[in-house]
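Kindly inspect the following:
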Amino acid sequence: MTHPDGSRHVDDGRPWRRWLQSIEAAAIAGIIFAVASSLSFAILFDLPGIEASDAEALAFYREPGAESQAIIALDLMVLAVIGFLWFMGVIRNRMGEQEPKLFSTVFFGGGVIIAAGLLLGVSTLAAPVSMMWGLGIALLLGVVPKIQALFVFSTSTLGLRTGILPRWLIVLSVIVGVGLLINITLFTASVYIFPIWVLAVSLVLLIRPRLPHRDDHWPRGSSLTKPRRRSSVTPRDQSCMAVRTNQDRV
């Protein structure tokens, strides 16, 4: 069903389906992404790095439990990407057809590229070859952060135009986006910047006071067009007003 504000909402009487499309679902999905991706990075950075030779990397993976460690890290990142895509999809669905097309396209396209880059990056980090580990670091610290900056900027713009995010978080998001964009270091701790930002956005969406709006589709300060209220003036009242106006003219 499409509401007059253009937001797409399916109401088939199933509460669980409505909840999956709610802001709370997006917030929880964002928290899952932040926690799972951070754990995945922490595990992978404990594996042999680019300074290790191929022989040392192979020797490490021959140890009991080493392969399981890499597999757990990959599974966590897959879970994180699923949460991130759900986070992205719910927010885009809530904005509906009134969303700014340019920024929503950048928001969606950038999110998909980030998801693909994260999966490719952690896969190379888990490979038992030092050259692949270097490729993963270059991808996660050099390429993906620039797309993440684009995603942060587009999210900030959408949040400003729809009122879904408070202004202080929009300002903080711009600062984070600039930091991701101009960062030219290969400092491994910088991979946690984007998950922390998603966590902050998710927590704000989750704990921000719930706002009264029809079918939970009216965020505070929303620029979306609200339906006009029906006039309380009846046709009989309009006729009386017309008669009085004519009498005044006479």
Summary: Confidence is low (pLDDT under 50) at residues 1-12, 211-231. The chain has one domain: 15-249. The first helix runs from residue 15 to 20. Residues 125 and 133 are 4 Å apart (CA to CA).
